[in-house]
Amino acid sequence: MKTAIYVSLLLLVVYGCSPNNVKQDDSLGKFFTDNKVDGCFALMDNASGKFTVYNLGRYRDSAYLPASTFKIVNSLIGLQTGKISSDSMIIKWDSVKRWNENWNKDLTMYEAFRVSSVNYYQEVARRIGKDTMQLWLDSIKYGAMTDTSKVVIRSAIDSFWLNNTLKVTPDQQLGLVKRLYFDQLPFFKTYQEMVKRAMLFENNTNYRLGYKTGLGYRENGNILGWVVGWVEENGHPYFFVLNTESPDRDIEMTKIRLIMLKDILKHLGFLEGKM
Q1: Residue 72 — φ and ψ, nearest 5°?
Q2: Which residue of the set 62, 68, 75, 85 is catalytic?
């Protein structure tokens, strides 16, 4: 109980989500119901500091494996430590055939990030090493903390973000991308800009949409989906996190999470040049 209270209080201090600046929007529940998933969504208006949240309890107090959203952190640490020389650095394919054909070739960091190559980033993590990775996770306070206020890597260096030994709250995910957007993380600005460039998937006259997806399985077997990032209109950023979950492992979560994100953003007035 003390741990839960401590974590919740810390999150309020670090990310600013308090009862005074939160609007709980239950109308967003229809997007979860229609797609037969549970989860939460939050959007922060950077100008006002106000949050629009669906399922506040899950957003603020529950932690989940980050899955491929960890590529944001893995990239930054890899670049800062020199294990990735630049976003054009190639890691040779190991000739092991995997389910995603986009991974079965030599890739640059930029390409690997965009196609979410697990094997590329597993090799990056191995090159970084457990002690150095631990140091940087402590530095940015990434992950649901224990009484020691420290996230401990408890499994293999190339899988701890995939197997439920590292967990993050949706609130932490939103806070991370906000700090990244403003180059406020403890990494060189050049490296933060590289990661933001890799995250920018849509850039047109109406809006800019940057994000990273994630897909994994909880201990109970449920499939979990993430989309974390920002939407920018008229030079004004809003930060979001979408967290989805279903016991149906056959559900097309890779498609559903992005469809839901765009439907929710449109419902809130984005993506049409009206903000």
Answers
A1: -60, -50
A2: 68
